[in-house]
Each structure stands twice: as structure tokens, then as C-alpha cells.
Design brief:
Elements (H helix, E strand, L loop, with lengths): L2 H8 L14 H27 L4 E4 L7 H9 L3 E5 L5 H17 L3 E6 L2 E5 L9
Helix pairs in contact: 3-4
Length: about 130
């Protein structure tokens, strides 16, 4: 009796015979190796990104259609200072709503640092007053 069947019987889950089928470990090992390699590659990229000097990007969008540029910088892990003073009040409000949602969705933060100027910081950036 296989180990899984013994545990199933012990737990009162009889009929676990289908768990004792032959298992092809080679396919699993290959998949795990690929997963491990892709995970290690991602970790190496993050390590390199963490050891590069931090960059703060200053952007002055003129229209709401500039939102993807701000989003791309933020998703790339860069801190963004956004000045919406050149936008109409309606578009500026819409842009701030967009970046607030972006910050929330990416676990970052948004702070107002002056009138119509906002700081959009990734989760790993600490913001202090003082």
C-alpha cells in the first residue's frame, strides 16, 4: 500500500487508489529547473536594479494622454515628481486620480509636495518629513 493511500485511509478518505499511479519525475524536474532559472533571472535583474543609483524622474504632463509615460516610469521602479500646473483643472484632476490608482495598485505612495506637484514613490522608497 502506497504512502498516499495509507494517509487517505487513515483520514477516512478511502478510494485513493488513483494516487498510486506511476509518476514521471523527469517532467517535474525539468519544469522546476526552468521555474528556478526564470526566478533566479528575475532576482538578478532586481539585484542589479537595486544596486543602480536611484533615479527621480520629473515630468510635466500637458494633457491626460501623457499618463502612459508616467505609468511606465513608475512601473519601472522610478520615483516620479509630476507637475500638473500646465494642465486644465479637469485634466489635472483626472491625471491625479490616475496616478493615485496606479500608486495604490502597485503598493506605492502618492504625496502632494506643492500646489499641483505630486510625488509618486514605489513601495520600496521611504518618504520622510524632516
Amino acid at each position: 500500500m502506497g504512502a498516499v493511500r495509507k494517509v487517505a485511509t487513515y483520514l477516512g478518505l478511502g478510494g485513493a487508489e488513483h494516487y498510486d499511479e506511476a509518476y514521471d519525475y523527469e517532467d517535474e524536474v525539468e519544469g522546476e529547473e526552468e521555474d528556478w532559472q526564470s526566478a533566479s533571472e528575475r532576482a538578478a535583474k532586481r539585484w542589479h536594479a537595486m544596486n543602480e543609483p536611484s533615479r527621480i524622474v520629473m515630468l510635466t504632463p500637458m494633457k491626460y494622454n501623457d499618463a502612459p509615460v508616467i505609468g511606465q516610469h513608475f512601473r519601472d521602479g522610478q520615483t516620479v515628481i509630476m507637475d500638473v500646473s500646465g494642465m486644465s483643472t479637469a485634466e489635472a484632476t483626472r491625471m491625479v486620480d490616475f496616478v493615485a490608482g496606479l500608486a495604490y495598485g502597485c503598493e506605492g505612495r502618492i504625496e502632494r509636495i506643492a500646489e499641483k506637484v505630486f510625488l509618486l514613490a514605489p513601495a520600496e522608497v521611504e518618504i520622510t518629513n524632516g
